[in-house]
């Protein structure tokens, strides 16, 4: 039995007692399996949350059509089609039946990158512009964070500033500015955030429904870096 079979049985609530033991063991010992499980869980939650209204509308359309028909045989045929859609969605997921849902893929995978470069401590720290920028960033005051990042002198700015400024733009859903900054980071190759930038560029491409470009970024990330490699492989599979 493959790992995919185990995941299928888990999400269809069909695991036997023995299979459940194997499943739990893999979650504890197999990082790739755990990453795929978490990805599928997040994706299913996103689909349930954001696509339920669409599915409900489709089924209501079927119901209206059924009610408007006088032919009993036709009604039963149409009802069977509607039921089939429900089953297909339940077993294979919204994406598999209605096509790639880029919006849900983005929402299931996106989160702002944490501040890992500037330690903000309480007390009598000197209140520098960089500190103010990261305080604003950590409290999700992204417009203020961008203003503060821009106010840092180019001669003293660390090479991670453009990456976090791009993150702030993503927090404001300004993908154009974020994409420009992340692209410069990747092309310049002089930042420790090149792999992270490739990941977020892939997510931006997905948000823009550009699956082809997203694949290019993901393939480059997988081939050259370890950052989010398991997630990138899973996401690439979803796009293929």
Low-confidence stretches: 89-98
Name the structural class: mainly alpha
Structural domains: how many: 2
Mean pLDDT: 81
InterPro entries: TPR-like_helical_dom_sf
Keywords: Membrane, Transmembrane, Transmembrane helix
Transmembrane segments: 74-94
Protein name: Tol-pal system YbgF family protein
Structural overview:
- This protein is an all-alpha fold.
- It has 2 domains: 3-99, no CATH class; 109-239, Tetratricopeptide repeat domain (Serine Threonine Protein Phosphatase 5, Tetratricopeptide repeat), CATH 1.25.40.10.
- The protein is 74% helix and 0% strand.
- It contains 13 helices and no strands.
- It has helices spanning 3-11, 17-29, 31-68, 72-92, 94-98, 102-109, 129-138, 142-151, 161-171, 175-188, 194-207, 211-224, 229-239.
- Keywords: Membrane, Transmembrane, Transmembrane helix.
- InterPro entries: TPR-like_helical_dom_sf.
- This is Tol-pal system YbgF family protein.
- The chain crosses the membrane at residues 74-94.
Describe the structure concisely.
This protein is mainly alpha-helical. The protein is 74% helix and 0% strand. The protein folds into 2 domains: 3-99, no CATH class; 109-239, Alpha Horseshoe (Serine Threonine Protein Phosphatase 5, Tetratricopeptide repeat).
Question: What is the element layout, followed by pairings?
Answer:
Layout: H1 3-11, H2 17-29, H3 31-68, H4 72-92, H5 94-98, H6 102-109, H7 129-138, H8 142-151, H9 161-171, H10 175-188, H11 194-207, H12 211-224, H13 229-239
Main features:
Serine Threonine Protein Phosphatase 5, Tetratricopeptide repeat, mainly alpha, globular, 2 domains, 13 helices, 0% strand, 240 residues
């Amino acid at each position: 039995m493959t790992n995919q079979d185990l995941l299928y049985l888990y999400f269809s609530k069909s695991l036997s007692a023995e299979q459940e033991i194997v499943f739990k063991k893999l979650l504890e010992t197999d990082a790739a399996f755990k990453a795929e499980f978490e990805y599928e869980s997040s994706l299913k939650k996103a689909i349930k949350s954001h696509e339920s209204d669409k599915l409900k509308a489709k089924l209501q359309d079927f119901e209206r059509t059924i009610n408007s028909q006088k032919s009993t045989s036709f009604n039963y045929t149409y009802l069977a089609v509607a039921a089939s859609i429900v089953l297909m969605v339940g077993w294979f997921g919204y994406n598999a039946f209605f096509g790639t849902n880029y919006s849900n893929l983005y929402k299931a995978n996106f989160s702002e990158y944490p501040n890992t470069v500037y330690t903000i401590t309480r007390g009598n720290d000197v209140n520098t512009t960089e500190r103010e920028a990261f305080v604003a960033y950590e409290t999700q005051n992204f417009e203020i964070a961008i203003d503060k990042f821009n106010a840092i002198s180019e001669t003293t700015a660390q090479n991670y500033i453009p990456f976090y400024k791009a993150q702030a733009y993503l927090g404001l859903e300004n993908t154009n500015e974020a994409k420009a900054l992340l692209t410069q980071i990747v092309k310049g190759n002089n930042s420790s955030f090149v792999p992270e930038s490739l990941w977020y560029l892939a997510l931006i491409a997905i948000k823009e429904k550009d699956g082809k470009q997203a694949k290019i970024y993901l393939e480059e990330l997988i081939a050259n870096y370890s950052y989010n490699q398991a997630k990138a492989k899973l996401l690439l599979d979803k796009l293929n």
